[in-house]
Specification:
The complex is a heterodimer of chains A (about 250) and B (about 180).
Chain A (H helix, E strand, L loop, with lengths): L1 H5 L10 E3 L2 E2 L2 E2 L2 E2 H19 L10 H21 L7 H18 L11 H23 L17 H45 L9 H37 L4
Antiparallel strand pairs in A: 1-4, 2-3
Helix pairs in contact in A: 2-4, 3-4, 3-7, 4-7, 5-6, 5-7, 6-7
Chain B lengths: L27 H134 L5 H12 L1
Helix pairs in contact in B: 1-2
Classes of the chains: A mainly alpha (about 250), B mainly alpha (about 180).
C-alpha cells in the first residue's frame, strides 16, 4: 500500500528546477514551470504564426482556429471597452491565449499548470491593473481619479462611495488572480484525488469492483475542468477589458 | 530548492516540505523572471507577427467578398440591361413584322382586286358576245320557222285539197299567226 500514501495531490504543483541558474544571488533556474511557459508560447506561436502562414482565402483548420480566436477576443474587447479598447488588442489577446493555453495544457496528464501558481496569476493581474493605472493617468491625468467619484451622488454619501470605490479597485488584482489560481488549483486537486482513489481501490483486493465509480467521476470532472479552463481564460480576458474600459472612459 | 527525494510516485508521505508549493516563496523569483521573459516574447510574437497576419487575412477576405459582391451586382445590372435591350429589340421586331404583314396583305389584296376587275371585264365581254350570238341564232332560227311553216302549210293544204295552195294566202296566214 505504499502507492496509496505516495499519491500526493499537491505534488503536481511543485516547481522543480531543471537547469539551476543563479544570477547575482537571485534564483532564475529554468524550472518545469518555465518549461511549460515556453511550451505555451510555442503552441500559441504555432497557432497564430504557423497556422496563418499560408494566408488562405478559405482557411485550413488551424487558420480557422486562429481567426476564431482573433475575432472572439476582438469582439470581447469591442463590447466591453469600445473600439478605443482595440489599442490594447495585442495585450488582451496575449493574456487570453497565455491563460487559455496554460489552463488547457494543464489538463494533459503529467503536465504542469502554470496558472496554478498564485505568483503567475498575481503577476498577470498586476500587469493588467498596472496597465489600467498607467494608461488612465497618461490619458486623463488627474481626471482619472474621477473613477472613484461617481457623478450624481449626494455629498453626504460621497465619502463612503469613494471609500467603497477605492476598496473595490484595490481588491481587483486580488480577485482577478485568486479566481483563476483557485479554480485551477481546486480542479487539479479534485482530479488528482479521484484519480488516486481509483488507483487505491484497484490495489485493495475486492474493493477493486467499485473502482469504476471514481473513474467515471474523473471522466466527468475532466470534461468539467475543460469548461472551467476555457471559461476562466475568458473571464480573465473580459475582466481585463472591463478594467481597461475604466482607464479609457473613467467618468463612468 | 525542491529536493530530488520527491521523484516518482513512490514517495513516503512524511518528508513533505512545510509550505504549500504554490505559496513557496523560494520559487517566486525564477517563476517571475521566466514569466516576464516568456510573456514578453509572446506579446512581441503576437503583436508583431501573429495578429497583423490574421488581421490582413480577415481584411483581405472582407475585401474579396465585397469585391465579389460588387462584381455580382454589376453583372446583375448588366444582365438586367441586356434583358431590357432584348425586350426592346423583340418589341421592335414584332412591330416591324406586323407592319410588313399588313403592308403585304394590302398589296396582295390590291393586286387581286385589279386582276379580278380585269377578269370580270373579260367575262362580261364574253358574256355579251355569247348573248349576241344567241340572239342572232334565235333570229335566224325564227326566220327559218316561217319558211318551214309555209312549206308545211302548203304540203298540208295540197294533201287535203288535192290542188296546190296559194302561196300568198299561206304567207298572209303565217304572218298573221306569227304576230
Amino acid at each position: 500500500m505504499a502507492a496509496e500514501q505516495g499519491i500526493d495531490p499537491i505534488h503536481q504543483f511543485r516547481v522543480e528546477p531543471i537547469i539551476p541558474i543563479h544570477i547575482g544571488g537571485v534564483d532564475v533556474s529554468f524550472t518545469n514551470s518555465a518549461l511549460f511557459m515556453l511550451i505555451i508560447v510555442g503552441l500559441a506561436s504555432l497557432l497564430m504564426v504557423f497556422g496563418t502562414s499560408r494566408n488562405a482565402l478559405v482557411p485550413s483548420r488551424l487558420q480557422s482556429a486562429a481567426e476564431m480566436g482573433y475575432e472572439f477576443v476582438a469582439s470581447t474587447i469591442k463590447t466591453a471597452a469600445g473600439t478605443e479598447g482595440m489599442r490594447f488588442f495585442p495585450f488582451v489577446f496575449s493574456i487570453f491565449i497565455f491563460v487559455l493555453f496554460s489552463n488547457l495544457l494543464g489538463l494533459v496528464p503529467y503536465a504542469f499548470t502554470v496558472t496554478s501558481q498564485i505568483v503567475v496569476t498575481f503577476a498577470l493581474a498586476i500587469l493588467v491593473i498596472g496597465t489600467v493605472i498607467g494608461y488612465g493617468v497618461y490619458r486623463h491625468g488627474a481626471h482619472f481619479l474621477h473613477l472613484f467619484v461617481p457623478s450624481g451622488v449626494s455629498p453626504l454619501l460621497l465619502p463612503f462611495i469613494v471609500l467603497i470605490e477605492v476598496i473595490s479597485f484595490v481588491s481587483r488584482p486580488i480577485s482577478l488572480s485568486v479566481r483563476l489560481f483557485a479554480n485551477m488549483l481546486a480542479g487539479h486537486i479534485t482530479l488528482k484525488v479521484f484519480g488516486a482513489f481509483v488507483a487505491s481501490l484497484l490495489g485493495a483486493g475486492a474493493f477493486a469492483v467499485i473502482a469504476p465509480l471514481p473513474l467515471a467521476m474523473t471522466v466527468i470532472l475532466t470534461g468539467f475542468e475543460l469548461l472551467v479552463a476555457v471559461l476562466q481564460a475568458y473571464v480573465f480576458a473580459i475582466l481585463t477589458c472591463v478594467y481597461l474600459n475604466d482607464a479609457i472612459h473613467p467618468g463612468h | 530548492m525542491a529536493t530530488t527525494e520527491h521523484e516518482g510516485t513512490e514517495v513516503s508521505g512524511a518528508p513533505h516540505e512545510a509550505s504549500f508549493p504554490p505559496f513557496d516563496p523560494a520559487t517566486f523569483s525564477s517563476t517571475l523572471v521566466w514569466l516576464v521573459l516568456t510573456f514578453a516574447l509572446l506579446y512581441v510574437v503576437m503583436s508583431k507577427v501573429g495578429l497583423p497576419r490574421v488581421a490582413s487575412i480577415l481584411k483581405h477576405r472582407a475585401e474579396q467578398i465585397r469585391g465579389d459582391l460588387a462584381a455580382a451586382f454589376k453583372s446583375r445590372e448588366e444582365a438586367n440591361q441586356a434583358a431590357a435591350a432584348y425586350d426592346k429589340t423583340l418589341a421592335e421586331a414584332k412591330a416591324s413584322s406586323q407592319a410588313l404583314a399588313q403592308e403585304t396583305r394590302a398589296r396582295v389584296k390590291q393586286e387581286q382586286d385589279a386582276k379580278r376587275v380585269v377578269i370580270e371585264a373579260e367575262l362580261n365581254a364574253k358574256l355579251q358576245t355569247a348573248e349576241a350570238q344567241i340572239a342572232e341564232r334565235k333570229a335566224s332560227a325564227m326566220a327559218s320557222v316561217g319558211e318551214i311553216a309555209g312549206e308545211a302549210a302548203a304540203a298540208i293544204v295540197t294533201h287535203i285539197t288535192g290542188k296546190p295552195a296559194d302561196p300568198a294566202a299561206i304567207a298572209a296566214a303565217i304572218a298573221q299567226a306569227k304576230v
